[in-house]
Every structure is written in C-alpha cells, then in structure tokens.
Design brief:
two-stranded antiparallel sheet; 6 helices; single chain; Rossmann fold
Length: 272
C-alpha cells in the first residue's frame, strides 16, 4: 500500500492518499486533520448499486439532506468504463463525501462492479479508513425478493454486525437474522472489516429486483439516523414510494387493457 501526502501552506492536503494493486483512493481539497477535530472518529456509510437501489438511495439522501461535500473519489480497474454526468457535469462513478457538522463519511458507487473482482478495491478503501482511525463501517443491501410489493406497512429491517457494535445496531426495532450469506462488494468490505480493527455492519431490507425501493431505503435511513443521532427527513422518499406505487398500479391497469382491447398504448417510464 502506497501513501502520498502533500503539504500546502503548512497544512496536509490529502491527494493520492492510498494506492492498492489496481485501485486508489484520491482525496482532493481536504485537510486530513479535519477528522481529528471531533471527539469520535467519523461514521463511514457505504452505498452501492444493488437490488432495489437501496444503498444508492440512502446515500444520495444523506448527501442532499446533510449538505455533504465531496472530498474525493475512488479509482479502480475493477469498475467498468462508465462515466456519469449530472446537469452536463461529468462525475466520477465512485465518490466520497463528508459532513463536517455530523462527522459522517459516505461513499457511493453508481455503477456495477465487475463480478468477483473487487477484493483489492475493498482492501484499499478499508485501509484508508483504518488510516483515519474510523471504527464503525455501515454497508447497505437489498434482499432480493421478487414477491415483494410496496405497501402501507413498514418493511422489516435486518442487521448483522460484529460483536463490538451489535447491541447498538439492534435497537429501534432492527431485527437480527438467525443466519444467512452475503455476496458481492458489500461482503468484500465486511470481510476486510473482520480482518482489521473495523466494526463492520450491514443493514438489509427486502426489495424487488424489478423496481427501486425508496420505502425500504427510507426505513433503513430512519433506523441509522436514530442509532447514530443525526437528523433526517423522509418526505422525499415517501413521495417517491407513492409515485412508484401509482405507476405500478397504472401499469397493471394498462396491461389489463392490453389483454382486453388490443396492443398496449405508449406508457411513461415506470420510475419517473
């Protein structure tokens, strides 16, 4: 692992902070010592593209509501050659944000990983976390269930964690599952937590792979905000959930009309 630092006007500015075999954490325009101004190390929340888009929805809400500032990005050969842009501005697909007020770091990756090739990336990111003395690392994941439907009832939230934080995690109605297997990038991150002095945890909720699940994401976000004591509002996610349910109902009605009256008429995108 290669560590690089640069001093500018007496302050340490994190540039190419950590490099692995095929990945690198790049921190830009940020003072490394900022984390040390807080009594406790920052909470690290990781959200990846997955079933129901649970991870990316949660992290995007945190970035918006806590007015988090982008502090860097992650480069890796394990990521496919995809570039994103928002309002015409190009963005790295794997980004890091920080809230100085609430001492929370989030990472968001909005493209899928190449299957089975994210070990070096997770090791590099967790080594970076260790360097900054981070303790709690939270991963988010949707549990694939094609029978799951959005409803007026709150979906269950499950969590598994290391012993050091299990009691803290299993509050606010969070359920401890008896057993299970985790796969993918989140599993790679948690394995690195197990191998190092990091307290890893994963929050899970059922999600249908066919559509986003802002309902489940909102419930997870609510639980985490109460456990780690930071403010959050769920208005936007509740509206998104209602819009998706409305569109699903309209789609079902449209499908019924197709069978009874002929060809299906043009229908707007389900997720808009």
């Amino acid at each position: 692992m290669t560590e690089k630092e640069e001093k500018i006007n007496g302050d340490i500015k994190c540039l190419a902070q950590f490099e692995g075999k095929s990945s690198r954490v790049v921190i830009t325009d940020f003072n490394c010592a900022l984390f040390k101004k807080h009594a406790n190390p920052p909470l690290f929340i990781i959200g990846f593209t997955g079933v129901g888009l649970v991870g990316t929805i949660v992290v995007n809400e945190l970035i918006a509501q806590l007015k988090m500032k982008q502090i860097g990005y992650v480069l890796s050969e394990d990521l496919p050659p995809i570039t994103l842009f928002y309002e015409g501005i190009l963005q790295h697909p794997f980004r890091l944000y920080y809230s100085k007020e609430y001492n929370i770091i989030v990472s968001i990756c909005e493209v899928p990983f190449n299957p089975g090739s994210y070990i070096d990336l997770s090791r590099t990111l967790m080594d970076w976390a260790l360097h900054h003395k981070i303790q709690d690392v939270i991963c988010l994941q949707g549990m694939a269930d094609e029978t799951y439907q959005l409803s007026d009832k709150k979906p269950p939230v499950y969590a598994a964690a290391e012993k050091e934080i299990l009691d803290k995690i299993l509050t606010q109605g969070v359920i401890r599952p008896p057993s299970g297997v985790l796969l993918g990038a989140e599993a790679a991150m948690l394995n690195e937590c197990l191998n190092n002095q990091l307290n890893g945890a994963v929050f899970l909720t059922p999600a249908n792979p066919k559509f986003p699940n802002p309902e489940g994401a909102g419930i997870i976000l609510e639980k985490i905000s109460k456990i780690y004591k930071f403010p959050i509002k769920l208005d936007t996610l509740i509206k998104q959930c209602k819009d998706i349910k409305k569109n699903l109902a309209e789609l079902a009605q449209h499908t019924t009309e197709m069978h009874s009256q002929g060809p299906l008429k043009p229908f707007r995108d389900l997720y808009t």
